[in-house]
Task: inverse folding
């Protein structure tokens, strides 16, 4: 392979020209040099936190579905605790994420409880944009510490319903984290 294909900036520029994520995935399979840069683009924007849970083997997490077909809720639970090397794989991916979204239909309480109880070091140092669409404000307060070491600049929070004390508590949590936000969008439905 020619040395020019080992220049990360060049590969990144080329991969950004692809419209379809599946094209980037195919490039990741070509060789190791392509794989690293393709992974950075693939993991740059995550539309669903559950994709990060896909770093664990299939027999590690269960997903319970509830609700109707229009608004299907997913609850994620650990079947068994992941091995430290499996956490390493998740951390590696988390370091690449620049934008992530949390859906109001997903419940990660069990996963968060394990992360907190066992003091799992899961940080998102490159995170710039964070979107929460949540119906339980407590989840926001639980999730926010995961992003305390990030370079968070944009935060969008949409609460279901409106509850002054819960929103005020969430804002106090946000201020305590002291993020240098450029954009803050808070809404209620």
Result:
């Amino acid at each position: 392979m020619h040395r020019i294909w080992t220049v990360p900036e060049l590969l990144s520029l080329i991969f950004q020209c692809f419209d379809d994520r599946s094209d980037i995935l195919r490039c990741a399979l070509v060789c190791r040099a392509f794989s690293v840069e393709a992974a950075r683009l693939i993991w740059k924007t995550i539309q669903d936190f559950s994709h990060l849970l896909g770093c664990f083997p299939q027999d590690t997490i269960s997903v319970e579905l509830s609700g109707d077909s229009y608004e299907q809720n997913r609850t994620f639970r650990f079947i068994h605790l992941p091995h430290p090397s499996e956490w390493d794989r998740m951390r590696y991916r988390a370091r690449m994420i620049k934008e992530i979204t949390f859906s109001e239909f997903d419940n990660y309480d069990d996963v968060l409880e394990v992360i907190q109880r066992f003091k799992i070091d899961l940080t998102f140092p490159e995170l710039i944009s964070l979107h929460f669409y949540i119906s339980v404000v407590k989840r926001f307060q639980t999730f926010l510490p995961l992003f305390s070491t990030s370079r968070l600049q944009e935060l969008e929070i949409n609460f279901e319903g409106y509850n002054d004390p819960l929103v005020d508590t969430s804002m106090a949590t946000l201020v305590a984290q002291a993020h240098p936000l450029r954009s803050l969008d808070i809404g209620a439905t």
Residues 164-177 form the longest helix (14 residues). The helical segments are 8-16, 21-28, 32-42, 50-53, 84-94, 109-117, 137-143, 164-177. The chain is about 40% helix and 20% strand. The CA atoms of residues 57 and 86 lie 8 Å apart.
